[in-house]
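Example A, followed by Example B.
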Amino acid sequence: MKADTMIRSWRHSLLSILPAIFAAACTAPGPVTDSGGVVEVDHFVPSQPETVSWGWYPVDKEPVLTIQSGETVRINTLTHAGATQSEEPVSYLAGLGIPREEVLQDGLDFWASREGRPREGRSGHVITGPIYIEGAEPGDMLEIEILDVETRVPWGINNTSSRGGVFSRSYPGFDDDDIELDIAPGTRHVIRTGEADGRDVAFFSPDIQVPLAPFMGIMAVAPDPVVGEPGVTVPGVQSSRPPGAFGGNMDVKDLAAGTTVYLPVFQSGALFYVGDGHGAQGDGEVSGTAIEQSLTGTFRFVVHKDVNISGPRAETDTHYLLMGIDLDLDRATRQATWEVVDFLVTEKGLTPAKALSLASIAVDFRVSEVVDLTQVVTGFIPKSMFLR
């Protein structure tokens, strides 16, 4: 039996149907993982000027690909770092020590296509999509199984500034008397990535290696933009900066290969977008950027009919992830707690009192992202504590 015919509501025995969801996904035509870890896919989408959008999620753009539920897609993404500045990319990146042979051609093509692209109300991300999934309609849920994420180039860029990220003058709580860090505005840090002692790392300095943990900062379905909502100042234009119920720029570093993401559907076909690749990031992304790096992701998409969820959620092998997203960090924490309590009540049969008690003693609430207007708090519910 197909997963989308088995499920009638996210709130109805999710835990009991998860094995069926994954069984159905594994029997989808074509995609398998061989012993070498190479994922065979049904489709491929490059990151070319015609397949990307700059800083927003168009709801009326012609799909770059149409697929059936259960199919897999390998998608190239392009980092904005080195592709959106005013200076020509080869010379700009050469000034940062990046040789011509490590500059992607699609980055050059995108840069050449910048003129004429509207910018009002938009952000800086380069986002691949949309992908139209047959059968997806508002009121459904889209499952995105992240099968693989890999780097396209052996470098990424992180930006720091004395008044960037959480030190920005526009950041909540800023005071004119705050001490300013001794950092030149717009300092760029080129960080090489590669293998050392059998593991993938980011070479931060001769004495510091950060484990490489690539993930897509943006995974989104096309939203239903409303002027006045975070990131919507122009009718029909949802800026890619703030995440929301549609997913988007969540920057949750745990959404890596092996994780499954669930998003509510707002438009016919769901219209999936992906981008903002990160080679590694700490919770919070406090400077305003991670290791901004062009990545390739491989995903399996499954539509679940008439499954209503209020916003993004995910699961790993070890945890359920429930997210709270709000302009205010305190409100985001409250929302994440509410989502966790609701999950424990509806899926595990606890009373609200018991659910809140369990949330307080066993669930970790982590600040995932705090620098993109709306802020993300994620509740991590460990699966190991449930005996059945």
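Example B, a separate protein, is given below in the same form.
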Amino acid sequence: MITKEELKNILIDTESYRIEKTISIDNIDKFSQAICAFSNDFPKSDKNGYLIIGAYDNGQLSGLKVSDKLLLQISNIRTDGNILPQPIMTVEKFSFEQGDILVAEVQPSEFPPVRYRGRVWIRIGPRKSIASEAEEKILIERRLSNIHTFDAMPCLGTTMEDLNISFIKREFLPKAVEEDVLIEDKRSIEEQLASLGYYDLRYSCPTNGAIILFGKNPERYLHGSYVQYVRFRGKDRAGDIINEYKFNGSLCNELAKIDTFIETSISQKRPIPVSVLREETVSKYPYWATRELLMNAIMHRDYQTNAPVQFYEYDDRIEIQNPGGLYGKVSPANFPNVSDYRNPFIAEAMKILGYVNRFSRGIYRVQKELDENGNGKASFDFSLITAFRVIEQVSKKYFESGFGAKDNQNYPETTQKTTQKTTQKKILQIIKENPNITRKELSIILEITTDGVKYHLQNMVNKGVIKREGSDRAGKWVIL
């Protein structure tokens, strides 16, 4: 981090490609653009950039008093998921007689172009602007020379024919890039994907990350790229297998199925009496916490091995085990306070698609949700070295008030099918009453995710129960 003496020298200097001074304290959009630009380091100085809050352009201090709230706001820019790949930065407060200064020090990214809300910001001298296509191409070439992670490497032997291009154009690109930028972008789909890190222009093929995320058959090239769910009877693997399933398609398809599977088959909500007049809904395994743990396993796993992510359910717990131990800067001593990414481009795509909300904070919320639901906190096993395991205990609250061991031991094989039938009956009744209802409205009424609604509707369409007439916005559902 910069020293106080170095900061004094910077204050008396003019703004440059490495320095931005401001007296604003609430323009998070402006701060994020500056951090994005420093991360891209377009002049290729390999020097850190400095966002200085609390100083005028001439170096005079504004008299700012830096609060904990402001420190937290600026620090949160790193992990809020709006700047991707995630910037490397530190934030520190400096106090002078004339007032305080808050400094965000930003390191140049090894994986440019870095985007803030889908736009690539750069600095040339004191000027900050959105990169042109030519400038963005320079950043892409720079990233190709810095490739270190497996998901950014070319998947040799593959072509664009191996990717689900329709999904990329329909679902991914509009979320990854601002609409007006995308409309003006006249580049080929290969060049568009290369700008996001999913196509290698040198070898004219998709990257490993692109095959994992959007591939028509990822397992053909990356044999362990699937999630294996098994429900065992009893408390160890010696018990009979009650149910099993293999999630083995591209992540863009399988993540939605996994999300729905956890919500409809694993979570299993039931009301628990709290008082004479009030009930509390408790889940066997809380949906969000379980989903977050499994999504983390998928995001952080080692895709170079032939081993899958293991999602194993027993009578008393769930175990999630992913190949690949703690990565990079993360150790048992600093977990989960420190984060590092084995697959930064897969992590970025999962954020764009909405399966990861904020980086670095999920574990704290997971532990809180598990505790409140009666599961107790999840335990993490770092002893496996080449693998990482998390254990989630079944909720004790779930089996209160007469719901005891009998329910747990006689876990029905048809739980998922029964739950799906119940949900789809409700959807059918709702559509009967309101054929124009939207997926979002169904999601609110049914209290499930929009991905869950999408899954059930498609399932019902495939079975010939309902069909859609007209467009998504102006059309209606018809019961057959």
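On Example B: The longest helix spans residues 415-433.
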